[in-house]
Amino acid sequence: MTTSASLLHPEAFLSPLGIADAVQRALDEDLGRAGDITSIATIPETAQAHAVLVARQAGVIAGLPLAVATFQKLSPDFNIQAHFRDGGTVATGLHVLTISGPARAMLAGERTALNFVGRLSGIATLTADYVRHTAGTNLRICCTRKTTPGLRALEKYAVRCGGGLNHRFGLDDAVLVKDNHIAAAGGIEQAVKALRGRLGPMVKIEIEVDTLDQLEIALLLGIDAILLDNMPPEVMRRAVAMNRGRARLEASGGVTLESVRAIAEAGVDYISSGAITHSARSLDLGLDFL
Length: 290
Description:
Elements: H1 16-31, H2 37-42, E1 48-55, E2 59-60, H3 64-74, E3 79-82, E4 89-90, E5 95-102, H4 103-133, E6 140-142, H5 152-161, E7 175-177, H6 179-185, H7 188-198, E8 205-209, H8 212-220, E9 225-229, H9 233-243, E10 248-252, H10 260-265, E11 270-272, H11 275-278, E12 285-289
Helix pairs in contact: 1-3, 3-4, 4-5, 8-9
């Protein structure tokens, strides 16, 4: 029998507890207090159904473990055969899953399963587009914290399925000093001094800069990573030359598929894009009864 764990991307982690929690919350939201009253009224309790999850659009698949967990949460009697795993590329019309089991439960879980796979596959597909546009460079595409509240772990997992990297998951796992921190602290030097007085030796510091003058200050302070915010590619090339390999350089701010190649060729190490999560369109998939 296909399990959620067997469909996970081999190089990305998604907690089994996170899957179970997300599925439970989604089903509670959809089934409410009375369940699927349409299916209960129209479908005999013993009726069985056979269906296929079909890709109606080409893309990169992500979220299959959540779809499987959705159906298995509603009934232990489902037989699910997977034809892909997360991270796989599908063409229009291909069958992704074949599902057999109780008809009522299948109908009750249909929309929740499709929502998970459609949303996460959309993120994986858009991420893969960004990665493809930077092929041949040393740059890596990263996501940001611009995620759907409550779904961050799932959406960041989808980024990995598309070939991207994860930036920090939250405010508690990495230091990123942004422009408002600098303004509130009284300057870059004051912010860095305060951080070094509090942080442990294993915590690295990244600082956002808007100008080459700020970059020079950050470099003199020996910062580990520097985010170049909203700099045009020609300014980024000057920043790379100034850096001379001392800090890791990240570009961010309004990055699009049209601009990402020029930014990559400027020589930065990473591009962080909020668009790959907040602006991804769901991949079109459907559940077709046979």
